[in-house]
Amino acid sequence: MEWLARTGLERVRDGLVREFSRGMRQRLAVARAFLHDPAVLLMDEPFTALDDRAIAVLQSLLREALARGKTIIMSTHQLREALELASDVALLVRGRVAFHGPCTPEMAADPGLVYARYGEA
């Protein structure tokens, strides 16, 4: 119940998942990911289908996990949200690593910079 509450799903705790919206299903996936307090979180497009409020909740949960020493590996197209949390970045272009290294304050301030510097010309 704690994770349903933390992800804003406590009101639908008895609902059928097949009746959930895409955003609700994504929040449920987040709750399930955190449920057993894993040392490593592997997340594929975790911000997809989330509204701004749910994105803020997810970022808060991820910050808490990082503060507790958890490792988070995230694959996403939503760089702004990811770079706010990242310590390291890898950019893939057509399946190849175009850049990997530490996340700089400049990258976090301007996510387009990663593509401009290291993406395809």
**In percent, how helical is the residue content?**
40-55%
Mean pLDDT: 88
Overall shape? elongated
| N-to-C series of helices and strands | HHEHEHEEHH
Adjacency order of strands in the biggest sheet: 1-2
According to DSSP, the number of beta strands is 4
Helix-and-strand structural type? alpha+beta
Low-confidence stretches: none
**What about the largest sheet?**
2 strands, parallel
SS field, number of helical segments: 6
Q: Beta-strand level of the residues, as a percent range?
A: 15-25%
Distance between the termini: 49 Å
Radius of gyration: 16 Å
Layout of strands and helices, then pairs:
Layout: H1 2-6, H2 22-34, E1 40-44, H3 52-67, E2 71-75, H4 79-83, E3 88-93, E4 96-102, H5 105-109, H6 112-118
Parallel strand pairs: 1-2
Antiparallel strand pairs: 3-4
What does this structure look like?
The protein is α+β, with helices and mostly antiparallel strands. Helices cover 42% and strands 19% of the residues. The chain contains 6 helices and 4 strands. It has helices at residues 2-6, 22-34, 52-67, 79-83, 105-109, 112-118, and strands at residues 40-44, 71-75, 88-93, 96-102. The protein has a two-stranded parallel sheet. The protein has a two-stranded antiparallel sheet with strand order 3-4. Strand 1 (40-44), helix 3 and strand 2 form a beta-alpha-beta unit. The radius of gyration is 16 Å and the shape is elongated.
